[in-house]
Specification:
The structure holds two protein chains of two kinds. Chain A is mainly β. Chain A contains no helices and eleven strands. The mean pLDDT of chain A is 91. Chain B is an all-beta fold. In chain B, β4 and β5 form a beta hairpin. The mean pLDDT of chain B is 93. The chains are: A mainly beta, B mainly beta.
Chain lengths: 115, 111
């Protein structure tokens, strides 16, 4: 079973469209993330949710709206797509707790191309 | 400002030729340092976490070490299947678990 799964894996869309990427984890973790990897392969955090509550929002344009219906799911909706949004988006999860060694596990990525 | 710098950017080794990758960091408070491996078209795969200076961890041909300023990923007698991008990331105290990544080292191991 895939621990962190995201769909779709590939997405090609036109500028101005709205699209969503879905993520699910079956690790029983309470914290989920969206990371963006640009063309230079630099990975940067966008959002984090803990038990469905937003805890990290890294100055991402408000065209990006994450939604967590429950602690096993974190979806990313993007409005009015721009060329610069083309990137690989990774979902990830971890278990919180100061005493826990909370390793973050990543999904396989969603390749978004805006044309 | 918190910074994570990896070097070299790219490394080409022959099979069996041992080497080390470097991750230097300047952060306000380190909670943990993580190493990940990323294959083309895949997500980062967790390798190690180091929490305190002097700590070492090993897995097959890989050994990670940590000092107060940097971490090394030593690769002993690498094989072609070790070819990948190796990512270093820091987790800071009081940052709700987020990772701050370096730009990675692309390793190619040839026969």
């Amino acid at each position: 079973d895939t621990a962190v799964s995201q769909t779709p894996k590939y997405l090609v869309t036109q500028m101005g469209n709205d699209k969503s990427i879905k993520c699910e984890q079956n690790l029983g973790h309470d914290t989920m993330y969206w990371y963006k990897q640009d063309s230079k392969k630099f990975l940067k955090i966008m959002f984090s949710y803990n038990n469905k509550e937003l805890i990290i929002n890294e100055t991402v344009p408000n065209r990006f709206s994450p939604k967590s219906p429950d602690k096993a799911h974190l979806n990313l909706h993007i409005n009015s797509l721009e060329l610069g949004d083309s990137a690989v988006y990774f979902c990830a999860s971890s278990q919180s707790g100061q005493q826990l060694r909370n390793t973050i596990y990543f999904g396989e990525g969603s390749w978004l191309t805006v044309v | 400002e918190d910074q994570v710098t990896q070097s070299p950017e790219a490394l080409r080794l022959q099979e069996g030729e041992s080497s080390s990758l470097n991750c230097s960091y300047t952060v306000s408070g380190l909670r943990g340092l993580f190493w990940y491996r990323q294959d083309p078209g895949k997500g980062p795969e967790f390798l190690f976490t180091l929490y305190s200076a002097g700590e070492e961890k090993e897995k097959e041909r890989l050994k990670a070490t940590l000092t107060k300023k940097e971490s090394f990923l030593h690769i002993t007698a690498p094989k072609p299947e070790d070819s990948a991008t190796y990512l270093c990331a820091v987790q800071l105290t009081g940052t709700a678990s987020k990772l701050t990544f370096g730009t990675g080292t692309r390793l190619q191991v040839t026969l």
